[in-house]
Amino acid sequence: MFKIALCAAILAIAYAEDGIVYLMDPTGKSGVTGTVRFLKLPSGINVIGDIRGLTPGKHGFHIHQEGNIQPSCLAAGGHFNPFNKQHGGPDDADRHVGDLGNIEADQNGVAVFDFLDNKISFDGPTNMIGRSVVVHEKVDDLGKGGHPDSLKTGNAGGRLACGVVGVVTVK
């Protein structure tokens, strides 16, 4: 029975549509680059990334509304928020769909991460395909910082790098 279940799982993965985004700074000033994969699992979307050129520490990491990254990632718009919620952390019930929290860069400026999110998807009103992923200059306070921007943006500062989520079909 285990072998049948394992084969079924492998086949399901082999024909999955996944998302990918290549991050860059359109201005060339920050030097931040990276790749993020979005893998559909039964329990949500597995977010796997490798981003380089960051300052050490935490950086806000979000999916933004628009799939336009020019100029300076500003045309990406605000956080992806189809249900008009306030900004929050990834574990909060009340949050923007695009609120993925923080990634953390090591002393060499490299952030490698792997986490699960159950709000974003590849279809319906929470579909992230064609939207932008943005890495911010500062830590996201997850809506709990008390700053006027906390409940809108997490007060995460400027945009260091961005890219548009595309589809990868694996067969």
TrEMBL record:
Catalytic class of the enzyme: oxidoreductase
Entry keywords, A to Z: Antioxidant, Copper, Disulfide bond, Metal-binding, Oxidoreductase, Signal, Zinc
Cofactor: Zn(2+); Cu cation
Catalysed transformations (reactions): 2 superoxide + 2 H(+) = H2O2 + O2
Single GO term (MF): copper ion binding
Signal peptide (UniProt feature, chain positions): 1-16
Keyword Nucleotide-binding annotated: no
RNA-binding in keyword set: no
Tree of life domain: Eukaryota
EC number(s) reported in the record: 1.15.1.1
SUPFAM superfamilies noted in UniProt: Cu,Zn superoxide dismutase-like
Pfam families per UniProt: Sod_Cu
PANTHER family xrefs: SUPEROXIDE DISMUTASE CU-ZN -RELATED (PTHR10003)
Function per UniProt: Destroys radicals which are normally produced within the cells and which are toxic to biological systems.
Protein family: Belongs to the Cu-Zn superoxide dismutase family.
Protein name: Superoxide dismutase [Cu-Zn]
UniProt organism field: Diabrotica virgifera virgifera (western corn rootworm)
Name of the encoding gene: LOC114346974
